[in-house]
Write a structure and sequence with these properties.
Elements lengths: L3 E2 L4 E6 L2 E7 L3 E4 L7 H10 L7 E5 L5 H4 L2 H8 L2 E4 L1 H9 L13 H11 L13 E2 L5 E2 L5 E5 L8 E5 L5 E3 L4 E3 L3 E3 L6 H12 L5 E3 L10 H9 L1 H7 L3 E4 L5 E5 L6
Parallel strand pairs: 4-5, 5-6, 6-7, 11-14
Antiparallel strand pairs: 1-2, 2-3, 3-4, 8-9, 9-10, 10-11, 12-13, 15-16
Helix pairs in contact: 6-7
This protein binds zinc ion (ZN) (2 copies).
The site of one zinc ion has 7 residues, from helix 2.
Length: about 260
């Protein structure tokens, strides 16, 4: 396991198929905790930057899936850090069981194959943990220098992304998208319409760097990449469709490029 430095105080902790992230100031803040059994690797990562596991004070969970919340209980037991997450999935962590969606939505054949191979029959069991703080869209967390919470449902109902302003603004995009073979959709969604709306919402933020649960970090111009990929309305506007407004009720389209009228 090789820790990757993303900014002066943000580190990516690769944990096999999934990433966790560590933010360093006087205290340590961890975003996600890997699959069950990942705690030992995360504690090792903390020691490798010369910090003590006891410095870990805050664990932010982007969502309850076992590859993100699987190590939370053990890390809390070892460090007494507080666990923060959205209410919609808090019971999964409290009860130690994460259900799978009844009808998952896939955006491509490869994603469906990956789901069937690695997720469909995987256990939903995780060690149960106390959730200390319920957080929601628009919350400003006074930790790690200030973190803005963004509710981004679609992959799962209580998924949160985190925006960390700094010399470079960093977005922790969770599983809203993935960056495995380029920026693209996550392996599956519970509700794809909601997911697309969440991606458009993220694309309105101004971030230089985007970190993902799955795949590599985008280190430059990440918001522009999100806008190009996920913000369909922006693309339409850039094609300069023209409208003529006759009165408040009636709008007539007079010209659209690539189309004869
Ligand atoms: Zn997930
Ligand atoms: Zn995941």
């Amino acid at each position: 396991m090789k820790l990757k430095r993303i900014t002066a105080n943000v580190y990516e902790i690769p944990l096999g198929t999934v990433n966790a992230f560590l933010i360093e100031d006087e205290e340590l803040t961890l975003i996600d905790t890997g699959t069950p059994g990942s705690a030992v690797k995360i504690l090792h990562a903390i020691r490798s930057i010369g910090r003590d596991p006891g410095d870990l004070r805050h664990i932010l969970l982007t969502h309850s899936h076992p590859d993100h919340a699987g190590g939370a209980a053990e890390l809390k037991a070892q460090t007494n850090a507080k666990i923060y997450m959205h209410e919609a999935e808090a019971d999964h962590v409290r009860n130690g069981f994460v259900p799978k969606p009844d009808v998952p939505v896939f955006t491509g054949f490869i994603n469906k194959m990956m789901y069937n191979l690695f997720i469909k029959n995987a256990s939903g069991d995780i060690a149960a943990a106390t959730v200390d703080e319920l957080i929601d869209d628009g919350d400003w967390l006074h930790i790690a220098g200030g973190i803005h919470t963004i509710h981004v449902p679609g992959h799962s109902a209580g998924q949160l992304a985190f925006f960390l302003p700094g010399q470079k603004n960093v977005l922790f995009a969770a599983d809203t998208a993935a960056n495995i073979m380029g920026l693209g959709y996550a392996i599956f969604y519970e509700d794809f319409q909601l997911a697309k709306h969440s991606l458009e919402k993220l694309a309105t933020f101004d971030f230089d760097i985007a970190c993902f649960g799955h795949g590599g970090t985008i280190r430059h111009s990440a918001a522009a990449r999100f806008r190009n990929k996920f913000m369909k309305h922006a693309q339409k506007i850039s094609r300069q469709t023209q409208y003529i407004v006759l009165d408040e009720e009636s709008v007539i389209r007079i010209k659209e490029p690539e189309e004869r009228i």
